[in-house]
Amino acid sequence: xxxxxxxxxxxxxxxxxxxxxxxxxxxxxxxxxxxxxxxxxxxxxxxxxxxxxxxxxxxxxxxxxxxxxxxxxxxxxxxxxxxxxxxxxxxxxxxxxxxxxxxxxxxxxxxxxxxxxxxxxxxxxxxxxxxxxxxxxxxxxxxxxxxxxxxxxxxxxxxxxxxxxxxxxxxxxxxxxxxxxxxxxxxxxxxxxxxxxxxxxxxxxxxxxxxxxxxxxxxxxxxxxxxxxxxxxxxxxxxxxxxxxxxxxxxxxxxxxxxxxxxxxxxxxxxxxxxxxxxxxxxxxxxxxxxxxxxxxxxxxxxxxxxxxxxxxxxxxxxxx
Amino acid sequence: xxxxxxxxxxxxxxxxxxxxxxxxxxxxxxxxxxxxxxxxxxxxxxxxxxxxxxxxxxxxxxxxxxxxxxxxxxxxxxxxxxxxxxxxxxxxxxxxxxxxxxxxxxxxxxxxxxxxxxxxxxxxxxxxxxxxxxxxxxxxxxxxxxxxxxxxxxxxxxxxxxxxxxxxxxxxxxxxxxxxxxxxxxxxxxxxxxxxxxxxxxxxxxxxxxxxxxxxxxxxxxxxxxxxxxxxxxxxxxxxxxxxxxxxxxxxxxxxxxxxxxxxxxxxxxxxxxxxxxxxxxxxxxxxxxxxxxxxxxxxxxxxxxxxxxxxxxxxxxxxxxxxxxxxxxxxxxxxxxxxxxxxxxxxxxxxxxxxxxxxxxxxxxxxxxxxxxxxxxxxxxxxxxxxxxxxxxxxxxxxxxxxxxxxxxxxxxxxxxxxxxxxxxxxxxxxxxxxxxxxxxxxxxxxxxxxxxxxxxxxxxxxxxxxxxxxxxxxxxxxxxxxxxxxxxxxxxxxxxxxxxxxxxxxxxxxxxxxxxxxxxxxxxxxxxxxxxxxxxxxxxxxxxxxxxxxxxxxxxxx
Lengths: 321, 560
Prior knowledge:
The complex is a heterodimer of chains A (321) and B (560). By secondary structure, chain A is an alpha+beta fold. Chain A has three domains: 2-106, Beta-grasp domain (Ubiquitin-like (UB roll)), CATH 3.10.20; 109-235, Alpha-helical ferredoxin (Fumarate Reductase Iron-sulfur Protein, Chain B, domain 2); 242-320, no CATH class. Chain A is 43% helix and 11% strand. Chain A has 13 helices and seven strands. Chain A is globular. Chain B is an alpha/beta fold and 560 residues long. Chain B folds into three domains: 2-225 and 338-398, FAD/NAD(P)-binding domain; 232-335, Flavocytochrome C3, Chain A, domain 1 (Alpha-Beta Complex); 407-547, Fumarate reductase/succinate dehydrogenase flavoprotein-like, C-terminal domain (Methane Monooxygenase Hydroxylase, Chain G, domain 1). Helix content of chain B is 36%, strand content 18%. In chain B, strand 7 (163-171) and strand 8 form a beta hairpin. In chain B, helix 1 (13-24) packs parallel to helix 4 (129-143), helix 1 (13-24) runs parallel beside helix 11 and helix 13 packs antiparallel against helix 14. Chain B is globular. The relative contact order of chain B is 0.16. The interface between A and B is large, with 59 and 67 residues.
């Protein structure tokens, strides 16, 4: 099979930070060859200076996260035939949201710093007197979702929040946190939730863009884990956050009017006693008025909005039973 | 200057388990690894970890006997007794650290069956047991604030007055060489599957630890014992876990027959690995294979069961072959998987070089003898990883640190500079691929004098070409060209030890099956082979033998 690869190159010893060069390689590959097979062939036969990480070749070590045609993937399990038509060019770049060390090799130090931030180890109050912890098998199988995470960094690479907010703990570390929150053997559940709820870059900073769910090569679905932790945090009584107030205001508005009351949402998310934030909002409000972007103070109602109210009531009553 | 009480080379299960223990003992511990700890090859262990849990009716002696029988009586029985009797505590401890082992209805640890054993005593996490344990040990390392030299490559051991007192290592990210001094060094650098092609092993499994210790004077023991796993994918060598057969999968030949019923009437598909691999190869050689493969059939297990208990296998089959295990059998063949041989240690991990310990796949205690049972490798890593740390902690009480001299560092700097300065000529990859293919041909599932001689010639050819290998990459940062060349030197040493050990053993035992001498010969060969680095000898190797320790299980004919 004829394949063309366009590979992003960066050499810190000869190029300035932010610079890159594109190298193109044309090669003949086995029909079931992976992108990793191609890169290894380049490294072994064409250009020994090409830097990349790889180890297991079987999607379990997490070394070979890269961007293929703009999306983060484990290149060992990405078959050439699945990402390009015969003869089409495949674009290989290092992962995003990570600093580049050389060519396709990125620094994962910030990634693992964030993993450290969630106290990623079991914290039981006491160990069993003898033998193992006795827990339900379903509770262990539940954790498999997150234990499948191999820390490849693909979710972090394509996370749209991290692109603009370096403080966000991020999908991988939050999925790791979920793994302990959900572990019946761990006795720090409430403390963990409280921390994740309040800390800068915590569970409320995800914008639900689904990118991490899409790119995760191991079906960890980090965003789903984050959403579950939001519910758990609220249930555990963590309500004094703009995140919680935002969800409350959002659903209250939709239930009542069938539409989002944007002006009220902003104020209620901030909280009526949060004076500094309200002053900020007032400023934004003035600017919005001047630009003709101010949402209506009295919200429009959707047609037959009482039907929406009834949907809400039904969901709430089902949830309560 | 970098200085520690204990320096552990390798951050897989053996290395991290040793590190956690040494840290608990209050020592200044560091781990050095050429990859980030969670990239280590322990990840690839899929099926589980064996442990006879005595509180639920199993007995450790049963496991010990299965292990010894599996080893074709080449394992040292005192070492096996230790492994089997400490296994229960080792697995319970992993569970308490947070490993999410599968449970039974009663909420207690559940088991599956594995090869060479009639008792189900293999504890598991789906088909990602190694990965699940590795990540938990890494969690423990983070909890204890373990010092890790990440992506540092060890080029040399520092030996002073016959003692190992540290290493010289290359920081891969910067390309600079450093000395790291330690009162004791624990080698936990993993296996050497890349000496062969194809292999289930990761690209990083290049026998570094074996060669480093060998050069320092430690013999490699039973290196002819190379395990071919019965179920690997043809082109890439990627592994499909024994857990498939443990959960009931069949092996079929081209006629649709479960041929293992013929070769191993009692254990069927779950005979020991050497036996199953030989049976497969026999079927293939006699014309009942399919393009050099047999078939692994899981269809009767049902989709839900496959996805729940063997999810990772399904992922591999679908992603790499486009085969849905619930719908179609998958072609598999024997492939190089594990090396039973390794750095000779005692039951505390100590080698003949004071201050140098070894544990895990690079070590040979020996508990696997001529054939390792599936799910005994993880057990080996945690039991002997821990023991080596405990013993090393005792050892350092009576020793001082090394000299701190720059002599070793400077020698390595000069050696690497001369490598970098070579004129363009040979390429490491061409030499590696040649050697690995020749090793697979010569040291196969079946071997004979001629095939092994062929491998020996290939290694000689490699050693002639080695000084001509030139490094295309002249940079310092992440110069993998240089790393792979240094790894190539390690692999050539390991290959050399393998062929000479194999030629020495004039019998068939376990994984070492000679078509020209097909019987086991307990009278003459109930012995270990010991390959020493000896520059004065032909090919730089001297092979000696030593007796096998028998405690209470006299060798008998091995039938499955």
